[in-house]
Amino acid sequence: MTDLIKVTIDGREAMVPKGTLITEAAKQVGVEIPVFCYHEKMHPVGACRMCLVEIEKVPRLQTACTTPVTDGMVVRTNTPTVDKARKGVLEFLLCNHPLDCPVCDKGGECPLQDTTFKYGADRSRFVEEKRHFVKPIRLSPLVVLDRERCIMCTRCVRFVKEVAGDESLTLLERGACSEVGVAPGRVFDSPFSGNTIEICPVGALTSAKFRFRARAWELKKTPSLCAQCSVGCNVSVESRDGVVHRLMSRENTDVDDGWLCDRGRFAYDFVNSPDRVTLPMVRKGGKLVPVSWQEAVGSVIRRLGQIGRTAGGERLGGIISPTATNEELYLFQKLFRTQLQSNSVDHGLHGDYTLPETGIDAPSGSIAGLESAKVILVAGANVYQDQPVLALRLRKAATKKGARVVVIGSQDTPVAKLGSPWLRVTDGAEPAVLNGILRLLLTELLPADVARERLGDLYDTVNRYVSEYPPERVRELSGIPETTLRELAHLLAETPRTAILFPRPSAGAPAGLQEACARLSMAVGALKEPGAGLFPLGLASNSQGALDMGVSPRLLPGQRKPVSATLDALEGLWGSRPPETTGLSGLRMIDAAAAGQLSALYLIGVDPLAGADAGRVREALSKVEFLVVQDSFLTETAQIAHVVLPSATFAEKDGTFTNLERRVQRLRAAVPLPGPFSSDWETLVAIANGLGAGWSYRSVSEVFDEIALAAPIYTGISYANLRSEGSRCQYLAAEQPAEPSRPRERKLWYRPRESQSES
Q1: How confident is the model at residue 735 (pLDDT cuts 50, 70, 90)?
Q2: What is the DSSP string of 690-728?
Q3: 331, 340 in Cβ contact below 8 A?
Q4: Which CATH number, 1.10.10.10, 3.40.228.10, 3.40.50.1980, 1.20.120.640, labels domain 368-531?
Q5: pLDDT tens per residue, range 306-320
Q6: Cα angle value 223/225/229 (rounded, 5°)
Q7: CATH 3.40.50.740 assigned to 281-355+543-728
Q8: Hey, CA dihedral for 592, 594, 508, 728, is it positive or negative?
Q9: Does residue 544 surpass a pLDDT of 60?
Q10: 3-state class of 666 per DSSP?
Q11: How far is the C-alpha of 692 from the C-alpha of 492, rounded, in Å?
Q12: Bridge partners of 672?
């Protein structure tokens, strides 16, 4: 238990952990101490001197952001001496700062402006002409700098170095000539550059996209989610007159730690695009022509019903994007299973899919929990590219918490440079390395009774399988020498608190990687350790939700298999029994279409012609009797469809996403739909009811509450009670954290990368 010490600030007492800075202790008792350079997620430097306070028995004023409290400390933040010092600091900061608040993007949300109003003097003794620079300087395509506004707090430079791990920004020149700039020979291409704009306490760094577009007080701020990847970062969608002008971070510490990547911050132009599909279209005389929403939906109802009656559900298929909300995904598969009697639903062009041996395809641990992991094993995943803010969490775990981040893969990424040598393997050989490690664990390092207990009924099967991966074969397949393989096996044998991250098969993982990671996590006991576990990583914003909603030809809602008990339960809930036959995966739907065995295909948010082998796919789709595309843009696939329905973007819809740690969070509509059409979930309800469903949903809230009944892993989560931080749904394996393992002295570790080429 952390020792607490007593501190008194402006007469208010608090018990805080030893080492707490005065600024943080003051927050606990509701006392404001103004700061500019200080940021709670970066190392304090005491550069701006704005946080000066009096400490009893200390002769001079001290900076609260660099001074830790001591037991019995008495601090005063509002004395005449402190007040005079603050006025002096502000006077110096403003002596060259331009008073251009009416045209500064930071006006209305500027800490310098607000702090001056609250603590500054009403006049300045400096009458000399202020400095003038050529402005602005474009540090990158996204970030511009007005040098005369900079107060040298160094927040931006420290963020880039400490948090992002990129030293592209630096301080140029010295003394009074110092200025922020791009380091010589570098470019400011960090994927997290937009965070420097948001943490800048003045208007020195601004967004090239937002600059002079709107005033802060004019913007409507809607709490929502980033839809660019599976991390689920929280954002504020800021709009005016139905136009999205910017996305800002909305801290959910457990998910994003307060940061956004540039893709999540700046990718919103498509919402405002004039190329959006705003009217439904139906093919008439060989051409797509705009029609009313009622006519287009009626055409879909008529043709799907006709094909279902004459050809049967096995000739109907549907593919929906994993960027759809849980409610849309759920209604989509329910439409196919209850009204069209088809299990041919998928959330992308995937191959055949089976659940891993853990019994559920979902992360067993949490994003924040990664900070307490002892070892983080990244196998075949490019986290820096695919889940950027998660990469910041891994960096924090390595640099601040001492975790060993081990990367096994063929790609050189920044994550591979987090202090531990990168284990470079032949492309696609990651499963062989993991199977080789597992073989060493089972045959040499783990007691047989421990291994049997952890693997259960799988023990004999796994033992036989990994026997085919002795060290010499692993080296032949991957290039990893036996010494390195053994060192890693020893490390994992001693460290149950291991997190294993890997891409899902749908995210391009090599064959067998998911099984190898699942078995290894079970063998080392990671599923029951705090700060550890298994982390399958999807690419899209709701990849996890798509699986949980049962948008799969082999799985029903809750990732349940179509056994009698599950079918009975869903029949009781839906009033219609789902078909028992296995449906077609996304890829098999294309194969069936090419063979003339698929009569109708309904696509929402997916464009098969944008991928590889477009010629073959185009030929296959040309044989589909009825093709429906529901999308925000007239994609290549939409251009050959029989009916095109408009679709909402993330900024125009309500609903929920489930992120990569099984956290259910709310998405909120920030701007209205750009045309006379209904939201996607309402379109699905209209089609189902036209086919005789009799659905009576009045809101996405009612759809979600049914999800909680249809998918047991969502039991206990209510749409109305989803708090701002969201709620994590259940994991079917034992999730109660075990007692933390006692640290052991570890001597074995990796040899330098060059040694991997040795015999």
Answers
A1: very low
A2: HTT------SHHHHHHHHHHH-GGGTT--GGG--TT-EE
A3: no
A4: 3.40.228.10
A5: 999 999 999 999 999
A6: 165
A7: yes
A8: negative
A9: yes
A10: strand
A11: 56
A12: none
* Lowest mean pLDDT across 9-23, 346-360, 605-619: 346-360
CA distances from 331 to 104, 546, 560 (A): 47, 11, 17
What is the signed CA dihedral for 108, 112, 116, 120, rounded to 10 degrees?
Answer: 180
- Can you say how many angstroms the Cα of residue 684 is from the centroid of all Cα atoms in its chain? 27
pLDDT above 70 covers a percentage of the chain that reads: 96
Question: Among 109-113, 453-457, 530-534, 604-608, whose mean pLDDT is lowest?
Answer: 530-534
Provide the residue type at 659 as one letter: N
CA 738, CA 348: separation in Å to the nearest integer?
Answer: 37
pLDDT digits (tens, 9 = 90+) for 545-573: 999 999 999 999 999 999 999 999 999 99
pLDDT at res. 748: 34
Averaged confidence pLDDT in the chain = 92
Cα-to-chain-centroid distance, residue 199:
20
691-729 in b/e form (b: 16+ CB < 10 A) is bebebebeebbebbbbbbebbbbbeebebeebeeebbbb
Question: For domain 4-78, which architecture applies?
Answer: Roll (3.10)
Contacts of 263 (CB under 8 A, 6+ apart): 191, 228, 229, 388
| Amino acid identity, position 632 | S
- Nearest-angstrom CA–CA distance, 203 and 120: 18
Check whether the bond before 136 is cis (ω within 30° of 0). Answer: yes
Task: Residue 478: name the closest of 536, 408, 406 by CA.
Answer: 408
* 372: amino acid identity, one letter: S
For 733, the token pair is 């394996």
- Give the architecture (CATH level 2) of 101-272: 2-Layer Sandwich (3.30)
Closest CA to 346 of 612, 543, 515, 636: 543
User: Residue 606 CA to chain centroid, in angstroms?
Assistant: 20
Residues 473-526 pLDDT 10s = 999 999 999 999 999 999 999 988 999 999 998 777 888 999 999 999 999 999
What is the H or E stretch that residue 358 is in? none
For residue 93, what are the contacts with CB-CB under 8 A and spacing of at least 6? Answer: 36, 48, 112, 151
User: Angle at CA 404, nearest 5°, toward 402 and 408?
Assistant: 160
pLDDT higher than 60, residue 746: no
Structure tokens at 313: 């559900």
Confidence (pLDDT) at 753: 33
Q: What is the pLDDT of residue 744?
A: 34
d(CA 142, CA 138): 8
Closest CA to 260 of 291, 229, 285, 306: 229
The whole-angstrom separation of Cα 650 and Cα 324 is 8
Retrieve residue 200's tokens: 């800048």
For helices 459-466 and 448-455, what crossing angle results, to 10°? 110
* Tokens 């701020």 found at: 221
Of the pLDDT bands very low, low, confident and very high (cuts 50, 70, 90), residue 732 is: low
* Predicted pLDDT at 743: 34
Whole-structure pTM value = 0.93
| Number of other residues whose CB lies within 10 A of the CB of residue 273 | 11
Question: Is the torsion defined by CA of 602, 608, 613, 614 positive or negative?
Answer: positive
Buried b (16+ CB within 10 A) or exposed e, 105-141: bbeeebbbbebbeebbeeeeeeeeeeeeeeebeebbe
CA distance 598 to 618: 14
In angstroms and rounded to an integer, the radius of gyration of the C-alpha atoms of the chain is 29
Helix (H, G, I), strand (E, B) or coil at 602: strand
* CA-based end-to-end distance of the chain: 49
Enumerate the domain spans of the chain. 4-78, 101-272, 281-355+543-728, 368-531
